Amino acid sequence: GADAGAVADLLLARGVTPLRIEAESGQAGAAEPSRPVKAVIAGWLEPAIGAVDLMLFCRQLHTLPAIGAVDLMLFCRQLHTLLRSGVPILRALLGLQESASNPRMRAHLAEVRRSLESGIELSMSFAQQSGLFNGFFVAMVRVGEMTGRLDEVFDRLSRHLEFEMFMRQQVKSALRYPMFVMAAMVAAIGVINVMVIPAFATVFESFGADLPMPTRILLATSRFTVSYGWLLGLALVAAGFGWNAWRHTPEGRLQWGRFLLRVPVAGKIVRKAMLARFARGFAMALKSGVPIERALAAVAQTVENAWIARRVDGMRDSVERGESIVRAAMAAGVFTPVVLQMIGVGEETGAIDELMDEVAELYSNEVQYEL
Fold first, then answer.
1. CA 333 to CA 210: how far, in whole Å?
2. What is the rounded distance in angstroms from the CA atom of residue 115 to the CA atom of residue 86?
């Protein structure tokens, strides 16, 4: 594989859970990684256009629209309809490839078809497209292959992706208002310091008296802003780039996910939305026949919060050591009493999937009410 993530996806698609993955270079017979999208499109266009045009096209490929959740949802829904109608998988993928409006999606589907034609299983073909189909998607397709119910799996995946998009929009709505208020406060303070306070400074100076300390601080702050405003602007831009780079590091993602859960008012909505996504994904994986350990590992990739994902991974480790699901959930420390109670009842009755669906519906409604 090209990297550790690609190797892990391939092994999980085969039902193997890797404990450690190490890089080895220069070894003969190593598996060739899947070709990048640029190479695939270049292979299509090479006979028709010159080398210079091909180079320019590949250089501009990154400007094409990325594959979003809507593209994946429509792909799953259309593939479900074709498979349910009895269309063979290769013909179905060819039809979807030709009708796809996104060039990147067409290239990935071409790679999936090529892998299938070479004898690789469908789940492994999806796993080779690193960055597009996550572990949850691959695990669900793997179960569909084993049970012969691929059409049902793709129907559930399309519904799951639709629910994911809805909850993601709800989280953005919850965070948009406090961010807008903070931006408005910063802009208002800047306008006051640059335009309002200097107009009163001459009036204060004409008094010829000692001004109170708060007033002197305010005047000094205004003078500094007017004189060194450009420096403050550069510092803010540098801080923004630094914060963005830190947020994409493993530790930054972890701390940022934890911070989102602690934001006043909005943090409660974010937590409920993440719990709804966890419950819906966990229920769907269990209904499809995915083992609990693999279901937890796959669902951890869908919550899009590194802090909660770390806790869900801890749950999986506890379950593998023989702990009950409810005890592992209690030790995670991210679930509300309602979720813990539902998990406990579901574990006793063997209906965790049904109760998790109810939890997802409950918190989805609560998120809308809170908004």
1. 56
2. 21
Long-range contacts of 357-361 (CB under 8 A, 24+ apart): 357/279, 357/280, 357/283, 359/275, 359/276, 359/279, 360/163, 360/276, 360/277, 360/279, 360/280, 360/283
Q: What is the pLDDT of residues 25-78, one digit of tens each?
A: 654 444 444 445 555 444 544 444 445 554 554 555 455 557 777 888 888 888
**Taking a C-beta distance cutoff of 8 angstroms, is the pair 96, 78 a contact?**
yes
pLDDT given at position 184: 92
As a residue count, the chain comes to 371
Q: Distance from CA of residue 88 to its chain's centroid?
A: 31
Which residue in the block uniquely carries the two structure tokens 């050591």? Answer: 321
In three-state secondary structure terms, 2 is: coil
Half-sphere exposure in the Cβ direction for 276 (13 Å, CA): 24
Is residue 111 pLDDT above 50, yes or no? Answer: yes
Taking only the tens place, the pLDDT of each residue in 50-65 is: 455 545 545 554 555 5
H helices of 14-134, where?
Answer: 37-45, 51-60, 69-84, 89-99, 103-117, 122-127
Specify the DSSP element, H or E, that contains 341: helix 337-349
Q: Report residue 224 CA to chain centroid gap.
A: 42
Per the rule left: phi > 0, alpha: psi between -120 and 50, beta: everything else, 121 is: beta
Amino acid identity, position 184: A
* Token duo for residue 26: 């220069």
Q: What is the pLDDT of residues 301-325, one digit of tens each?
A: 777 788 888 888 888 888 888 888 8
Please name the residue that has the structure tokens 């208020």: 181
Rounded distance, CA 170 to CA 273, Å?
8
Q: Kindly report, residue by residue over 206-219, the tens digit of the pLDDT.
A: 777 777 888 888 88
